[in-house]
Amino acid sequence: MNRWFVLLLGIGFMIVGLFPEINLKIVRMLGKMDWAEQRLGTGGTFNVWKWIGILAPILAMIYFFSGGYSPTNGWNRNQDIKNSFQKSYESYSTHKYISYNLHED
To answer: Is 102:93 a contact under the CB 8 Å cutoff?
Structure first.
């Protein structure tokens, strides 16, 4: 999944969860969550949307900066860093440096 899309989706959930006016409109449009009302008491649906509004952007930022998830390769956390180090090492080792042997045996 595109990392930018996930980040924007997380920001969207943050807006829905943390702004009471938008939160109320979404609950009216989607309805209340029965399990949240039973387990969390009155206003449980609004509390769930608040938690989604807090957790979604945090998880989206972790996903965005980690490199994302690929079904074939799994989490690509350090691939970019590893590749950049490998490329810099290869470019460093291929340079022709003149070395002077100051200590003769």
So the answer is: no
**69, β-bridge pairs:** 75
Enumerate residues 6+ apart whose C-beta is below 8 A from 64.
3, 4, 6, 7
This prediction has a pTM of 0.57
Element (H, E) at 88: helix 79-94
pLDDT in tens, 87-105: 555 555 555 555 555 565 5
What separation in angstroms does the CA of 51 have from each of 33, 58, 91? 14, 11, 48
Hey, is 72 helix, strand or coil? coil
Question: Which two three-digit tokens encode residue 97?
Answer: 């440096």
